[in-house]
Specification:
Chain B: Keywords: Golgi apparatus, Lipoprotein, Membrane, Palmitate. The complex is a heterodimer. Chain A is mainly alpha-helical. The longest helix of chain B has 21 residues.
């Protein structure tokens, strides 16, 4: 590690010798020893990528497959068992309309699940250093403001911008850090396990169209299956009708239970869209009049129609993370892994930080000395790095962060001054009140407030916080054994 | 010796870039601060800088504008199940191309002769506009 610092100024004299014994791409300009990697392979968040970076999902996709299976099975049963009877007895328009709804549901589901929700890329080392400088300059000027927050007045309302320790940026208003995906997402709504992705600025309209069309589909299937059973029982009697079409019973049961939650959720999101709020803001009551007489939503356009149009038909911003671009070894890389390890602790609650920090700092030193830091996997924190995650691409053999160039130098200084630097950062954290700490809204379940959310909450809320803490402890133990 | 060499280089690396942060006073629309940074004082004049940033702000406002044409595009896209974007670019992407061209132009005409390089904010996730000082003197 240190030898790279010495080799650089000598490079001009010894270039021919270096090219044979070095292994980093920078020092062998005429022969690419390592193949070009795409940016998604070096992505620091906890996302899964498919189709060479075209598809992007959250880490846990089990519930998404459940959603898919439920929709496919129920619709499949409907088309095979109920539609033949209904199209003959009533009208063939029924399977046609059903088919259109079904295709629309699947299309919007895939679009929601597979697209980038609006992830904000992490700050480059230069930017992070520049912000650090500004922050320390401010706090050394006499009075001590709350660290790492900025206040902005938007349309007459004071909004607090929080600093994200993982991404090293001041989060734009309405952005939030999802701890499940370990990304800051712009206009963060919630993390939905049913679609296996976060819902944010870029895929909110698809999410809304998905739940809306799914409500219609569920009601449609429910109504027509009941019609089918009723018509049959006029012919054959109720019990034999049920015996002759057993699939109908299953469909009715699934639809009955889904209808309440999905229709409820659609109603809730219709309200959110018309008042231009995110689930996050609504649950926290950020703009509710209960907080204060003068509290209002500064982002609302004033009337329901404009709010709806803006959310559903407004311009679609492009993805800010270039997933399929190539990693260039001479451009600044996003926030390096070692910083991510200490910073990860700060996204958890303060109690976890106090216990974990000293251990993390030693781990940082151990890792940097070995120089075998996996470029991608450790960025989510020691937990996700050490644990063998299914489906994750293998860590790169040549660590792009160690390549020698001027932009990497601030990073290397961090490595070498590792303990000292992280100590100062560690020192800041105890001063953060729980309010200032980056909130983990990623815990918010995608469920209607009616009844569904309880079960999903039970599944996720205690599990996620505890499992993350558990993961980090387990990860640290694994790292120390390396 | 290593340590101090890296210290110097780090100082150079940091002071060689000037970052213009986002301005959120108008909400979540992409706008950059027009306040003139002190590090550029002896390189370009305030007027020029403000004009560049203001033009950028106007371009981004145009990209995110809500109006008849953007609604039409949104509805059309929805009706064609968004497959229409396989053939044509979104309005936002068209404006981003315009911005890239504008930045290229500004670099060629104004900033490169003065030893500065303006980077396109889209490469920094629309977080900052960064000026890189290409000459290490000053």
């Amino acid at each position: 590690m240190l030898h790279l610092g010495v080799a650089e100024p000598m490079r001009d004299c010894e270039y021919s010798q270096i090219s044979t014994r070095s292994s980093t791409p920078m020092e062998t300009p005429f022969k690419k020893r390592t193949p070009k990697r795409r940016k998604w392979q070096a992505f620091p968040g906890r996302n899964k990528f498919y189709c060479d970076g075209r598809i992007m999902m959250a880490r846990q996709t089990g519930v998404f497959y459940l959603t898919l299976v439920l929709i496919l099975v129920t619709s499949g049963l409907f088309f095979s068992f109920d539609c033949p009877f209904l199209s003959v007895k009533l009208t063939p328009a029924i399977p046609v309309i059903g088919g259109v709804l079904f295709v629309f549901v699947l299309g919007t589901l895939f679009r929601t699940s597979f697209s980038d929700p609006g992830v904000l890329p992490r700050a480059t080392p230069d930017e992070a250093a520049d912000l650090e400088k500004q922050i320390t300059n401010c706090s050394s000027s006499g009075y001590r403001p709350p660290p790492r927050t900025k206040e902005v007045v938007i349309n007459g309302q004071t909004v607090k911008l929080k600093y994200c320790f993982t991404c090293k940026i001041f989060r734009p208003p309405r952005a939030s850090h999802c701890s499940l995906c370990d990304n800051c997402v712009d206009r963060f709504d919630h993390h939905c396990p049913w679609v296996g992705n976060c819902v944010g600025k870029r895929n909110y309209r698809f999410f809304y169209l998905f739940i809306l069309s799914l409500s219609f589909l569920t009601i449609f299937i429910f109504a027509f299956v009941i019609t089918h059973v009723i018509l049959r029982s006029h012919q054959e009697g109720f019990l034999s009708a049920l015996k002759n079409s057993p699939a109908s019973v299953l469909e009715v049961v699934v639809c009955f239970f889904s209808v309440w939650s999905i229709v409820g959720l659609s109603g809730f999101h219709t309200y959110l869209i018309s008042s231009n709020q995110t689930t996050n803001e609504d649950i926290k009551g950020s703009w509710s009049s209960k907080r204060g007489k003068d509290n209002y939503n500064p982002y609302s356009y004033g009337n329901i129609f404009t709010n709806c149009c803006a959310a559903l038909c407004g311009p679609l911003p492009p993805s800010l993370i270039n997933r399929r671009g190539f990693v260039e070894s001479d451009t600044s890389q996003p926030t390096p892994p070692t910083n991510g390890i200490t910073m990860y602790g700060s996204t958890q609650s303060q109690s976890h930080m106090a216990a974990a920090t000293p251990l993390m700092q030693t781990e940082t030193v151990i890792l940097t000395n070995e120089g075998s830091l996996p470029g991608r996997t450790s960025l989510g924190g020691p937990c996700s790095g050490a644990l063998p995650l299914g489906g994750q691409p293998t860590p790169p053999t040549s660590n792009p962060n160690l390549s020698s160039d001027s932009d990497m130098l601030p990073l290397r200084k961090d490595h070498i001054d590792g303990l000292h630097h992280h100590h100062t950062d560690g020192g800041h954290h105890p001063f953060l009140t729980p309010e200032e700490a980056p909130s983990p809204p990623g815990m918010l379940p995608c469920g209607s407030p009616v009844g569904h959310s309880h079960t999903v909450q039970g599944f996720y809320n205690p599990a996620s916080q505890d499992s993350l803490h558990e993961d980090s402890v387990r990860g640290l133990v694994k790292l120390s054994s390396v | 010796m290593n340590h101090s060499l890296q210290d110097i280089r780090q100082q150079a690396a940091i002071s060689a870039k000037v970052f213009i942060q986002r301005d959120y006073t108008n909400g979540t629309v992409c706008q950059f601060q027009t306040k003139f940074p002190s590090e550029l004082e002896n390189r370009i004049d305030k007027q020029q800088f403000e004009e560049t940033v203001r033009t950028l702000n106007n371009l981004y406002a145009e990209a995110e504008k809500l109006g008849g044409s953007s609604y039409l595009e949104g509805c059309l896209a929805c009706l064609t199940a968004y497959t229409i974007f396989l053939c044509m670019e979104t309005h936002y992407e068209k404006v981003l191309k315009k911005i890239a061209k504008f930045i290229q132009e500004q670099n060629d005409k104004i900033y490169a002769p003065r030893g500065l390089l303006l980077t396109d904010p889209i490469e920094r996730g629309l977080r900052v506009v960064s000026f890189t000082k290409t000459l290490n003197s000053h």
